[in-house]
Amino acid sequence: MTEPSPVLQVENLSIHYRGAPAPAVRNVSFTLGRERLGIVGESGSGKSTVGRALLRLLPTAEITADRMTFRDIDLLRASERQMLKVRGRQMTMILQDPKFSLNPIRRCGDQIAEAYLTHVKCSRKEARARAIDMLEAVQIRDPERVYALYPHEVSGGMGQRIMIAMMLLTDPGLVIADEPTSALDVTVRLQVLGILDGLVRDKGIGLIMISHDLNLVRNFCDRVLIMYAGQVVESLRACDLDKAQHPYSRGLLAAQPRIGGPRAPLPVLQRRPEWSQPVETAR
Predict the structure, then answer these.
(1) Among 146, 176, 244, 255, which has the minimal tally of Cβ within 10 Å of its Cβ?
(2) How many CA atoms lie within 13 A of 228 on its CB side?
């Protein structure tokens, strides 16, 4: 039996912003199948930059790679017209902060329906019905009422669920989730993660989870990439995260508070220039 082809293949991805003295991302390589891949690291390590580069959302940056393909689409050489058909339909990105992602002068439901109308031929009535169904799927009570609200009339957690509904509405093949549950309480967070997990398992999509939450990545993802200073320093199975060998990885784990752990101050994360060199572990 032949193995299914990868959803995404990235080889030696580098990203350099105009005027910057050094690349923001250097030589990042990974393959994504129909699985959940976590990317972790401190702020500024390049996690979100990688996600935006995959969607070609960095107009002020030079993106180079030996290979960057989604299914049979060469993301490096695809025209902007081709990318307009890919973004939002085949590849979507759940952004972290709905305050800056939702249009403040348009009703939330209309924005969700517009995302569906842009990529699927249907009537506005059908798009509205699909949007309300998806709002209900992300655990929003009274979705018809929320459909008619403006972004300033919803809480941060509800706004984030609206963003998730918008990005999942078109049944994409790849979802890039940038801290998708950061504004949600624990109960709703589990419900939303269950929705994302169902997409991976039932529809065979690929999911990239960008997060600072090591516990979330350990318990939800299949594999983990750990980034430092724009490079992947370690790659391993999520269930083996506690067995990470790289000093930076060990520092991230040690800086995480644990219930019932020692009451001494948490260690300060150390950083060394030589840690920029990648270390290969389990793939």
Answers:
(1) 255
(2) 22
